[in-house]
Specification:
Blueprint: H1 9-33, H2 35-42, H3 46-74, H4 76-94, H5 98-107, H6 112-118
Helix pairs in contact: 3-4, 5-6
Length: about 120
């Protein structure tokens, strides 16, 4: 058919990257919502909480150039796999019991397949 249009794979990658960055920005924005509850619960000052948030945002911004250099040297696929493995190790190190892993997967809205497996 001459009028049929096939979606190029680069647009799929661009869409997945956009959604990943959108999710990361959403996670970053949650820190501002938690200032008042953290202040009440742990009796920390706003300056202490804001400093921790600022350090996290600064670190998030500083990773960009090194991630770009790694993507240029090793390729996007290998860099993303290494990043996902590092995140998996980080999450697994915090989940010490099986029920914690199940609770984490059950509350995560982005992964319905893993949510079903956790039950």
């Amino acid at each position: 058919m001459p009028g049929r249009y096939k979606l190029h794979y680069a647009w799929v990658i661009a869409a997945v990257t956009f959604l990943t960055l959108l999710r990361a920005a959403r996670i970053r924005a949650r820190a501002g919502i938690l200032v008042t509850p953290l202040e009440r619960e742990f009796h920390w000052s706003r300056a202490t909480i804001s400093f921790a948030i600022a350090v996290g945002i600064c670190r998030y911004g500083m990773i960009g150039p090194s991630a770009a250099a790694m993507m240029g040297r090793f390729g996007v696929r290998r860099t993303m796999l290494a990043a996902l493995a590092a995140m998996g190790v980080g999450v697994a190190s915090r989940l010490l019991r099986v029920w914690q892993a199940r609770a984490q997967l059950a509350t995560d809205k982005t992964c319905p397949v893993l949510k079903r497996l956790a039950r």
